[in-house]
Input
Amino acid sequence: MSSSLTATSAPARLLSLDFFRGATVAAMILVNNPGDWGNVYAPLRHAEWNGCTPTDLIFPFFLFIVGVSIAYAMGSKKTDAASHGKTILKALKRALILFGLGLFLSLYPKVFTEPIAAFQGVRIPGVLQRIAVVFLISSVIFLKNSERNIFRILIALLAVYWLLMTFVPVPGVGYANLEKETNLGAWLDRTLLTEAHLWKAAKTWDPEGILSTMPAVATGLFGVLVGVYLKRKDVDAATKISWLFCTGTAAVALGLLWDLQFPINKALWTSSFVLYTGGLATIILSFCYWIIDVQQYNRFTKPFVVYGVNAITVFFLSGLIPRTLRMFTVKAADGSEMNLQAWLYSGFESWLSPINASLAWAIAFILFWLLILWVMYKKKIIIKV
Output
């Protein structure tokens, strides 16, 4: 066995984790920014309801990574109970900033032209908002509980959510169900948030709703447990990789088995979805850890690492820029007016088929941010939220 595989200490920062985070954020930008939503390749779309496409893996992977990062960032503070208050306060501050950034994206740019209407119809749940809540709750659970208790909480969250969604009658409906508008989570979102503050594509339910935050926290805790194990100094790298691969495979199998009764569903963030995606994330991270951190094959990682170290920054700005481009109008060659984004995109449509033009726009957007992030990385500019 090579010496690299028998190493007993984990690095303070995992290059493989930065790589995995960067690849995940780049994938987020790819699927969130097609040139034309009517022309998107099937793997770059979410499943219509039950099931799981490659796109459905992206968000749970990111929450899993958030959990792993918590174990690394807060590991040294866990044993110092006196510092917990300060650490939790910092986590709360970061969570509030993330939540605020998410709300700002929902409000922008309407907040500058019609502020009252913007706030009256702002979507309260969202991707950054869910990241904020999962980060805060997972941080507190990590600091205040043993590894065994964290595992118990994870299982309890999955079990309780399953019981609520499949056995509790839905008010006004009369029976438990997993349909889009009549499930318990959708009813709770409409009751507490009202339809005005839900996902604009539906207005009757939200894919980042209140009740489904419970299993989303379980996804974060899944990552926390993996991070804790990766940090162990009494276990050699070969054993870590073997155990993580086996654990990930077992979780995927359990998720597929549970899918028979509680379908894998990203919008509902079902318990089977947590196990399935958490297992896949564990397998991928263990493979990346072996290749990048243990075997030191890392020349190919830099484009993704530059995304990974400024992940939240690029995700926020990549949502802000398209909204800004659509604020400006230009005249097309035929004299008609169109917004600036549509005008830029027309250049892709002029020489590619509709579906390939849509994909090319998304890829160009990724490369545009890669150039900016590369410069930031070279200048050691890392914006921490």
Remarks:
- The two ends are 42 Å apart (CA to CA).
